[in-house]
Structures are given as C-alpha cells and as structure tokens.
Specification:
heterodimer; A: 176 residues; alpha+beta; 4 helices; B: 280 residues; SH3 type barrels; Pdz3 Domain; 2 domains; seven-stranded mixed sheet; four-stranded antiparallel sheet; 8 helices; 33% strand
Chain lengths: 176, 280
C-alpha cells in the first residue's frame, strides 16, 4: 500500500514538474505557427509565464491579414487532464462594427480528457450568449447563439446568415 | 561530528530530485523542438493601392472648355506665356499631361520618334531635361541651369477641347470613365448595411484561393446601378492590385473616402473590362 502511494506521489510529482517546467511561451509560439497557414496571426502580444498557466496580454488579432480585434487577455492553462483557454475583453475592429457588436466580454474554451474528441466553448458579449462545440472526429463545429436585444435589433443581416431554431436561438454549423 | 541520515528519507529525496531533473530535461527537449519566437505581422502591406494609370485618352482631357469665340486665340497666347519661361524644346513633342495640385506627369516623345513616348513625373529626367513644373497647357524643364518650355502644338490644342475624351466617358455599359460623387461614397462608407441592400457580392475561389469578387445582384435605381457594373461581373483588380483576399477588398473599402480615382478590372464574359471612377 505504501509503495502504491509512493508511486502515485512520484507520478503526480513528475506530471506537476513537467507542467511547471514546460516552456509555455515556446509552446504558445508553436501554436501560433500552426495558426499562421490558416491566416490567423496574433501579434503585438506580451506573454507572461505564471508557472502552471500562460497569460497573453494586449494582443491584436489578424485574420487573413485583416486587423480583426484587440484582445485584452488570454489565459491558457494546460493540465493534461483538463485544458482551458479563457479570453476576455475582445474588441472587434471598427471594420466589423457594422456586422457584429464590437465587445465580447469573455470566451471560455475547454477540453477535458474525459471528453477528448470534443472542444466546448462559451462566449458572452454585447451580442448575447453563445455556446459552441467542435467535434474533432467528425470535423465539424456547431454554434448556438442566444442573441441580445442589440443583436436582434441592429444586426438582423448577420442573424440572417444563421438558422433560427424553434426555441428562438440561432444556429450555425461548419465543417472543416 | 557524526551525522546520521535516515536512509529511506535520503532515498526519497534522491528520487524526488531525479524526477524533477528528468522533468526539467524533458522541458529542455521541448524548448528545442518548439518555436523560439512568435509570429509577427507587420500591417504596412495594407496601404491603399495607388491609382496608376498611364493612358493618353484619360490624361489629355478638357480641364476647362474655352469660349468658342476666343477658341482660336488662346493657343498662341498660352504658347507665348509658356515661352516666357524659356525657349521651346524644338526636338520634342508634348503628347499629353496630367496636372495635379501635388504634381502630375507628362507624356513626351522625340519628334524623330513620335511613337516612342515616355511618361515622366516632376524631377524626372528625359533626354537630359528635368521636368520642373506642369502647367495647364505645357511643361517647364530645366537643363544645365537654363529653363525650357514645351507646349502643345496648335493642332493638339484643338484636339484637347474636342469631345474625344468625353466619348470615352459615354462607354457606360462597356467600361470607361465614370464620375462618382464623394457624397455617395461617404454615405455608403457610413451605412454598410445599405451596400448589401443595393448590391450583392460573393467571393470567387479557384483551387481554394480567392481570385475575385462576383457581383450577384444590383438593385435598380441606386447609385450602384449607374456604376457600369453588371450582374455576373467578377472584380479581379482594383487600382492595379489583384483582389485575392478579403484584406484587399477591405483595404479599398476602408480607404475609399480618401481616393480620388478608382480603377476596376472586371471579368465580363471571360474578357477583362476596365472601369475607371473619378471621385469628385
């Protein structure tokens, strides 16, 4: 029993040490390189390694070389069994103001070892609330949007791009 | 001094240290494998494309319509006025000019080779003559500290005030030059939703890459219906810049209120058609 407890302790210690020493900044840059072929670039950011998590501050997001948003902060936590990316204070570029409410307060993305093939995300902002699921096996993503009053009144054209469900929310599906 | 260490405690500490060292070594391997620095993007390439058009039909155009009663007189007066700057360059011919507040350009050729013309801007040199100033009816050059003038011949002056260039503007259905009010541009720039109500545009992709933007509908009796665009046209270039991404299209949209002219190349029935807009 003592040996099992010791083995568990060593295992947890090894995982903890590995997570602590993992060069999170380099890992983040590696992730950035994977996004580049998709036309997504996060620039002008400041990366801060907090030991077990990585914080990205004051980033600018470019999609297809178009400045798309200013991002207040991104907290990345990679714990093997549970991984999360929490984005807060996203302000869309003025170019998109006509299509979408500019402020997204937070976006929380989670992936767990208990459901490894699905990535779940939630977002809250001036647009309302949205939940999204990405199925890595079937290579599809679905978004369910509960629009705010602002979204319903001022961004009807954008909502027309989505399917309205019987429950009153709007859905969008994408295959990749 | 004799210190007794507990062997099992020592073994535990050693194991912990080994585990931490192995984890650190693995992290160093990761550091070697992953990227050293982030991806940078310098948005200087999003500059608004410049309008570059060197077409004599556009450049030689009526800047002001002379009074028909005195139309025969100004040529010589203007020539005299230009000649006051300095002697005329006798071996060259001025074929056209485009004058702007900030400069402009002239089309020039040697009389011996009238078809071998060149376009030069202010401070550029042609046959040893440096272009220093562009006037309404001619240009001033400098060579070796002496000033020279070059002006249109009497025949050319007559041509300048004929309706030749304006006939180009009447090619309303087949391209040509269009006049667009800045107020319309400003209106649409501020009301993007109105754009989508009045015109439908979708991307055109070939092998996964955007090759242009196709006009899918144009609402009748709107400013868009007078732009010379037709349903089915594929916009492939704007101001000589290929439209191969949304960034290219948005660059035009974001800077349209600063443009003085816009040239579109559209694919119409598989043929390239040029449409030029002068924004006034």
């Amino acid at each position: 029993m003592k040996k099992i407890a010791l083995f568990l302790f060593y295992t947890i210690l090894f995982i903890g040490a590995l997570l602590f020493f993992t060069p999170k900044e380099s890992l983040y840059y590696f992730g950035e390189e994977q996004l580049k072929p998709l036309g997504v670039v996060i620039g002008y950011e400041e990366a801060i390694d907090h030991g077990f998590t990585l914080e990205i501050q004051h980033a600018k997001l470019y999609v297809q070389k178009i400045k798309s948003a200013n991002i207040g902060s991104i907290d990345i936590g990679l714990f093997l069994l549970y991984n999360s990316i929490n984005v807060s204070n996203v302000v869309l570029d003025k170019t998109f103001e006509q299509f979408f409410p500019p402020l997204i307060e937070r976006i929380d993305v989670q992936q767990s070892i208990f459901n490894p093939l699905n990535i779940n995300a939630e977002a809250v902002g001036d647009f309302g609330e949205a939940t999204a699921t990405v199925n890595l096996l079937e290579r599809n993503a679905s978004v369910v949007l509960k629009p705010s009053k602002t979204m319903l009144s001022r961004y009807k054209n954008t909502l027309r791009q989505l399917k309205k469900s019987k429950e009153g929310d709007y859905r969008y599906e994408y295959k990749f | 001094m004799n210190i007794n260490f507990n062997p099992s405690l020592m073994r535990f500490v050693r194991n912990v240290l080994i585990i931490i060292l192995v984890a650190k070594a693995l992290s160093l391997v990761m550091l070697w494998y992953f990227a050293y620095e982030g991806v940078h993007y310098h948005p200087n390439s999003s500059k608004l494309p410049e309008y570059k058009r060197y077409n004599a039909n556009n450049i030689i155009k009526p800047t002001k319509k002379p009074d028909p009663k005195t139309a025969s007189e100004p040529t010589s007066e203007e020539a005299q006025e230009l000649a006051a700057y300095g002697p005329n360059i006798s071996n060259m011919v001025l074929k056209g000019l485009f004058k702007r507040k900030t400069g402009g350009m002239v089309i020039i050729a040697l009389k011996a080779k009238p078809n071998d013309s060149e376009v030069i801007g202010i401070d550029e040199v042609y046959q040893g003559y440096t272009l220093t100033k562009i006037l309404e009816n001619g240009a001033i050059f400098d060579k070796g500290g002496q000033t020279f003038s070059l002006y249109f011949s009497e025949e050319q002056q007559q041509d300048r005030y004929t309706s030749k260039p304006s006939s180009a503007r009447q090619q309303s259905d087949d391209g040509g030059i269009k006049q667009v009010a800045k107020t319309d541009i400003t209106h649409y720039a501020k009301n993007v939703k109105q754009i989508w109500k009045d015109i439908g545009i979708v991307e055109v992709k070939k092998e996964g890459k955007i090759t242009g933007f196709k006009v899918t509908r144009i609402k009748a009796n709107t400013p868009f219906s007078n732009l010379g665009l037709r349903k089915g046209d594929i916009i492939i270039k704007a101001n000589n810049k290929p439209m191969t991404s949304y960034k290219d299209a948005i660059a035009i949209y974001k800077g349209i209120d600063k443009l003085e002219a816009l040239e579109l190349i559209v694919l119409r029935n598989n043929q390239e058609t040029e449409i030029v807009y002068e924004i006034y």
